[in-house]
Design a protein that fits this description.
The chain is α+β, with helices and mostly antiparallel strands and 419 residues long. The chain has 12 helices and 9 strands.
Amino acid sequence: MEPAITPTVREVIQYGWWTMTLFVWITGLCVGSFLNVVAWRLPQGASIVHPGSHCPKCDHVLHWWENIPILSWLFLRGSCSNCGLPISLRYPIVELITGVIFFLVWLRIWFAVLPLSLLIGYGYLAAAIVAIAIIDYENLIIPNEITFTGVATALILAVVYPSSQFVGVTAVGGVASHRMLSNALEVIALRAFPAAFASPRALALLNAFAGALFGLAILWMVLEAGRLVWGRQTVIPEEPEDLEITPEEIRIGEDLVDTWEYLLFRANDTVRIDVDSASLSCTPSCSSTSPKPPAPVTQIVVTQEGLKVGTDVVAWDDLERIEGKVSKWTIPREVMGFGDVKMLAMVGAFLGPDACIFVLMLSAVAGTAVGVALVALRGRSRHAPIPFGPFLSLGTLAWMLSGTAFVDWYTRLVSALIQ
């Protein structure tokens, strides 16, 4: 009779590690498959759960074996089994990227000996930033459904799993988190209200709230400051450009083609256009009640309420078309969308206030570098907006994988300079 083989502790740990790694990897692939659905349907206002997965071209409902991440795309050779039309390569790429991110997050948590509950929050946040990066890149929007739900999820996790916030010594069982703002906030709270914040849950919830508010405030201030400095753009072409204004959009040669919804984003936004000549077409009611300007039109001022064409005021409902030649125009310009502000609030709710500074710094550097490169390559299309969400996603991922190491390095650098 052969003796029973008793596994060592090391073998048990290794077996458990490989099992967990495989589980995290497969989970990441499946989440990536779901994110493809989110990125496709959410900008259209469609439900992400109904109907089930189907071909967007022929509405063929996918069988289970057509829904296996990566493998189904390879098995089907990148085409629909019903209509034969190609399936975008984006689908397996998003699945692969999400799986790799989940795997890297798991490695970070395991080898840094971080609380296992971080895997829940980090996994949710990783999925959110992947979805945001895709949607913002393709549609220039960051849906509230993702950011608001993310903030709520972070607050709930702070109560259910306090160590998911990884704040200070209290929530991690003796291991300092090396986060200056979070630790300072913890010290202040414990000194001011020792009874109220004696619980790890209270500290974790405080850190989540503080992170969300800090992320919201810091990027909102950047947005407003940028608007004060770069909030208006004036263009004077070498030769007069063709002008066309409709209730939907404005077209000035090839330099400006935008919808009013984008240009007049805020209630007090205005667009000023100096014209060499202009002709106004409006509805019969407008023509019969609106007096003709006594002098040739030299300027058009556009607001959310309507247009001032010379001395004539025209409501949007009465406008049909304005055509002419333009010699100068000034338009409002947003440094970034408010969706970016809400995204950083979500990041702060999960990762704390320290992460907001790191994420904003890294994403700003990366965004500037890409923006400069695009300006050099695009030429006349240099005014096209650049989505900031993908760069915030990149900064968030960098923090999850190595952000505290950056704080440690920065702390040592500051200490050395002080000494």
